Amino acid sequence: MTDEKRVLRLLFRHQRGHVPGSAGRPGPPLADLAKALKGLRIDGYSLKRRRVRRGGLSATKVDVLIADGMDRPMAFQEIRRLLQAARLPAAVRESSLQVFENLARSEAAAHATALAKVHFHELGIIDTLVDVVGTVIGCRLLGIEGIYNSAINVGSGTIESRHGTLPVPAPATARLLQGLPIFSKGPEGELTTPTGAALMATLGSGAGAMPVMTMKAVGYGAGSFNPPDWPNVLRVLVGETLPPGESDRIMVLETNLDDMNPQAYELLMDRLLAQGALDVTLTPVIMKRSRPGIVLTVLADPAKVESVLRVMFAETTTLGVRIQDITRRLLAREIVELSTKFGPVRIKVAKAAGRAQELKARPEYRDCKRLAEQTGLPLRTIMDEVERVMRRLPC
Asked: What would the pLDDT profile of 195-232 be if each residue is shown by its tens digit?
């Protein structure tokens, strides 16, 4: 069993019209998708796949063809009952229900109505059911464990709806995309629909920078909207991430200081580490006008950036901080505890990927310091004893 995770990377251009199926080679066989969708136990639709051109790209377009009289709007409660009664795998049912619940809640909040009163008037509801459930099933057929998307192009201008003229992105779309990176570029119009936004807000594992992965396949899916000279496609990259612990994202925060009292650095470093900084370094440099200075560099988890920034601005004289989002490679590590004649000491063991033997092993300095203080022995004596015990361990 490997630690690799199979992931789907979505690079958004536009998502107007039918939600595209997985494109080209990454896509699941249409026959398998159609068979799985029969679990919805609804009639009045069929699937049609064809190749289309979008700008200079060839893409797959999957149309959901709706029979006459089968396009009536449905209330959220009715959709929920339909999905609960469907013969679908539990994980598919739960994910699909969550997408529709998020979509309904955003519509209710955007138009100040109760959740029970939400009707999806703007959607061909069977079309949307197939889009949503088909997306979840498609990911299952491909063995996808995580979906990551780039910044989402929402479009611009206005659209006409049952509620009148609305700005783009539509109110429900804007609510669904809170917390996700968005932008507006290209032809005027609605380039991300509420359905597409609900799928990414619900199923997405991350947004922004692409995770480090070994790419296995790439393809393009097309929507209905086809503006001239603008490739309206959804690009799909399927790959496998590296095993956990081998790669992650960190933030580098850096600033130049030339007018601080050096006595303040000790407290500054303590407070940065207390706020979650992974590492703090001070590098002497010669700055402009030949003045000696210090480059303060802080490594931090993306979730800790704001708390680290507050310390940097409060505890230093800086007026600005440079921030970089970087990927680092790591050896897989684990902590083991050794018993020595002076007491227990934790050992950090790093192993190279694919190797059985240990690559590096280092005792935790704080544990050695604690034993030195408890016994009154020199620190070197404690560390020599720890290394002697480590040499006796099997690789």
From this structure: 999 999 999 888 877 777 888 889 899 988 888 888 88
| Mean predicted confidence (pLDDT) in 89-107 | 92
**Measured between alpha carbons, how far is 331 from 106 in angstroms, rounded to an integer?**
43
Q: Assign residue 15 a region: left if phi > 0, alpha if psi is -120 to 50, beta otherwise? A: alpha
pLDDT category of residue 274 using cuts at 50, 70 and 90? very high
- Mean per-residue pLDDT, 59-67: 89
Q: What is the spatial distance between Cα 339 and Cα 275, in angstroms, rounded to a whole number?
A: 32
Question: Which tokens is 49 given?
Answer: 């796949």
- Give the count of alpha carbons within 13 A of 145, CB side only: 7
Tokens found for residue 241: 């991430």
What pLDDT is attached to residue 1?
Answer: 32
Q: What is the pLDDT of residue 24?
A: 40
Tokens 């069929």 — which residue? 46
Name the one residue in this structure whose structure tokens are 């949503």: 132
Enumerate residues 6+ apart whose C-beta is below 8 A from 391.
none
Instruction: Evaluate if pTM is beyond 0.70.
Output: no
3-state SS string for the chain = CCCCCEEEEEEECCECCCCCCCCCCCCCCHHHHHHHHHHHCCCCEEEEEEEEEECCEEEEEEEEEECCCCCCCCEHHHHHHHHHHCCCCHHHHHHHHHHHHHHHHHHHHHCCCCHHHCECCCCCHHHHHHHHHHHHHHHHHHCCCEEEECCEECEECEEEECCEEEECCCHHHHHHCCCCCEECCCCCEECECHHHHHHHHHHEEEECCCCCEEEEEEEEEECCCCCCCCCCEEEEEEEEECCCCCEEEEEEEEEEECCCCHHHHHHHHHHHHHCCEEEEEEEEEECHHHCEEEEEEEEECHHHHHHHHHHHHHHCCCCCCEEEEEEEECCEEEEEEEEECCEEEEEEEEECCCCCCEEEEEECHHHHHHHHHHHCCCHHHHHHHHHHHHHCCCC
Indicate if the pLDDT at residue 379 is higher than 50. Answer: yes
Mean pLDDT calculated for residue range 256-269: 94
Work out the pLDDT band at 65, boundaries 50, 70, 90.
Answer: confident
pLDDT reported for residue 352: 61
Question: Closest Cα to residue 16, out of 147, 159, 126, 162?
Answer: 159
CB atoms within 10 A of CB 130: 25
* CA-wise closest residue to 189 among 162, 166, 164: 166
